[in-house]
Structures are given as structure tokens and as C-alpha cells.
Amino acid sequence: MSTDYTYLSNLSDLLPDIPADSILSRTFYTDDHVKVMLFGFAAGQELSEHTASQPAILHFLEGEAHLTLGDDTMDAGPGTWVHMPPQLSHSILAKTPVVMLLLLFKTDE
Q1: Alpha-carbon span 83 to 49, nearest angstrom
Q2: What is the distance between the alpha carbons of residues 87 and 97, in angstroms, rounded to a whole number?
Q3: SS3 for 45?
Q4: Under 8 Å between Cβ of 60 and 80
Q5: Considering the domain 22-105 in this protein, what is its CATH number?
């Protein structure tokens, strides 16, 4: 029987308690096509404006955040899902403790 899959029963188990004034990240899966990371933000923590060289997906699992995508700003909460093309400037400010999944897609460039 083949076991060429990855099964995680609860992503939240991958992050310990998020210390105050911290952002934790954990890469828990990578292959030739995608790198998957789980982020935990304490309330008030921010990933300042930056870009990624690869297409990416943000999926907010827990908490409330302020999200900037290019020139647009919006709120993000549980269930918010964003696809970003390469080089899109973005930032995230956690209004409450936040857990977010990041998928970075590898390109052949």
C-alpha cells in the first residue's frame, strides 16, 4: 500500500502557545511544487509590507487581522482566503491572536 500522502489531524497542534509580542512560523510541508507554513501571531504583531517572488495563498484559520494587498486594505478572519500573484506587496497586522496558513507555489523560472 502506498503512503504518498500527508495527513495532519489538527494544524493547531503544530504551533505551541504563541508568546506575547511574537510571531511564530513553522514549515510543515514542502515538495517540488509547494511550501506550506503555519503562522501564529500574537495580538498586535505585524508582518510589515513585503513581496514574495512566488504565487501564494493565505488562509486565515483563527483570529482577526488587518490585511493590506497592494493599495487595498481589508479585514481578515476565520475562513478568509487570498490568492496573491508574485510581487504583490502585502502586510498583515493581527488585531487578536491569529493562526494563518501560507502556501508558496514554486515556479519553473
Answers
A1: 16
A2: 27
A3: coil
A4: yes
A5: 2.60.120.10
Choose among 20, 12, 37, 26: nearest CA to 94: 20
- Cell numbers 493590506: residue: 68
pTM of the model: 0.92
Q: List the domain boundaries for the chain.
A: 22-105
* DSSP code of residue 76: E
Question: What pLDDT digit, counting tens, does each position of 49-105 carry?
Answer: 999 999 999 999 999 999 999 999 999 999 999 999 999 999 999 999 999 999 999
If you ran DSSP here, which 8-state letter would residue 17 be given?
Answer: P
**Angle 90-23-14 from CA coordinates, rounded to 5°:** 110
